[in-house]
Amino acid sequence: MADIQGKKIAILATNGFEQSELEVPQRKLREAGATVEVISPETGEIRGWIGKDWGNPVKVDRPLADAHASDYDAIVLPGGQINPDLLRGNEQALSFIKDFYTEGKTVAAVCHAPWLLIETGIINGKRATGYQTIRTDLTNAGAEFVDEAVVTDNGVITSRQPSDLDAFSAKIIEEVREGRHERRAA
Predict the structure, then answer these.
(1) I want to staple 28 with a disulfide (CB 3.0 to 4.6 A). Which of 10, 56, 150, 169 is the partner?
(2) For the purposes of burial, counting CB atoms within 10 Å of the CB of 147, is it exposed (0-12), middle (13-18) or buried (19 or more)?
(3) Is 181 tagged catalytic?
(4) Which of these is catalytic: 112, 126, 160, 171?
């Protein structure tokens, strides 16, 4: 994978994130040389979801209240059903995501996390993908749904599911290396 030494990536999550959708990108981005921080409205630890039960705890590196998009090069939004549903009701989380977009930074969402891109207005007019059950949500929000492992539209990366995480992680690395994107505000 391409080297992104010196880059800093935020992973925004709360309890109920899909375990692999946080841990795989976190590991791959670190292996590529990035500093990766888990940001959450919670402090201490958050717990993932695996299959039909709670998964493993993950350390929160920085509380959302102390995080600023200007300190990072990209944001990764893991899915699962619980995590993005909780975050889309959190105005501070939505503002944090919008700031990445407005600053032209990479915004990456997998599985159900495109719900956050719907809530922020970022997805409107973009080509995107997500978990099969949110296809209608994406279409109704103005996205052109594409059933591919990874879809990128001007630095906004979306992906479908855990089996696509290698391609998702590789695309995040590629977009971070590419740098800022010129965009209109969400």
Answers:
(1) 169
(2) exposed
(3) no
(4) 112
